[in-house]
TrEMBL record:
Family matches, as PROSITE patterns: HTH_CROC1
Domain of life assignment: Bacteria
Region described as Disordered: 125-156
GO molecular function: DNA binding
Record flagged with keyword DNA-binding: yes
Keywords: DNA-binding
Domain HTH cro/C1-type: residue ranges: 11-67
Gene3D superfamilies: lambda repressor-like DNA-binding domains (1.10.260.40)
UniProt KW DNA-binding keyword: yes
Pfam families the UniProt entry points to: HTH_3
Residue ranges, compositional bias (Basic and acidic residues): 141-156
Record-given protein name: HTH cro/C1-type domain-containing protein
Length: 156
């Protein structure tokens, strides 16, 4: 289980260490907010809303809990993909007949669904309690969504 403790969000760290060093203005345009909003988020003067937290996390390729400072690992699960280049995977796909291409895609979707399912299961109940007790409404709504996803996963 992943255990998380509260700290300030990592937005400034992610933005300034991004390969192209995004400006606050450029990030604001990408996310669909004002530069002032980015500044307020970076100074922890304003909570990042759940939908914007998801957009930011997706943009930087990290988990929402990492972005918000609730966990140390960038991702809730380790990537199990090998270091094979995409071109090798594409080459393999191209060599398959139509039936087998469909099977490969179906299997890939199943693997991805299982991978996404487990990332929510890796958050400990203790961690969810810590976030809930922080009093941060936006973060609590994110935990609500995670718990809802966990319940859906249990039904599958």
């Amino acid at each position: 289980m992943t255990d998380i403790t509260f700290k300030d969000n990592r937005l400034r760290e992610l933005r300034t260490n991004y390969p192209e060093k995004l400006t606050q203005e450029k990030l604001a345009k990408i996310i669909g907010v004002t530069k002032r909003t980015i500044i307020a988020w970076e100074k922890n003067e304003r909570d990042i809303t759940p939908d914007k937290a998801k957009k930011l996390a997706n943009h930087f390729g990290v988990d929402v809990a990492y972005l918000l400072g609730y966990q140390e690992e960038r991702y809730l699960f380790k990537d199990t993909v090998t270091d094979e280049p995409v071109s090798e995977i594409q080459s393999l796909y191209d060599k398959l007949n139509n039936d087998n291409q469909g099977k490969l895609l179906d299997y890939g979707h199943l693997l991805l669904r299982d991978q996404q399912k487990t990332k929510f299961d890796n958050i400990s109940d203790e961690s969810i309690k810590k976030v809930r007790s922080s009093g941060n409404k936006a973060h609590q709504r994110i935990m609500d969504r995670i718990e809802n996803q966990r319940r859906k996963n249990e039904k599958r």
